[in-house]
Amino acid sequence: MFERFEPDRGARARRHMVAVVAFDGVVLGDLATPCEVFGRVRSPEGRPAYEVRICSLGREVRSEHVTLKAPWRLSSVRRADTVIVPGIDPLDRPLPEELLRALRC
């Protein structure tokens, strides 16, 4: 049985922010799934329950098959309530140092 989503109205006025980090070599399914899942949740009033942001170092991110445009910079990671780091391909590919610094903040 599913429980109805009831946000704590006194906790904060803004929506819970989810930052999904995009980078060259990102696994597309790992990037898209949290965007779809969190982006579809609605409050009892029908409004989006989460603010989902795809964040990256630059405006474009290359995957094996496509190039994506990321609308948000990494500075959104610092303000996020939840940060999701998708998988990378190949697994031994190093993440950029600037990205690692942003995640450590």
From TrEMBL:
It comes from the Bacteria. InterPro entries: Class_I_gatase-like (IPR029062). This is AraC family transcriptional regulator. It comes from Candidatus Acidiferrum panamense.
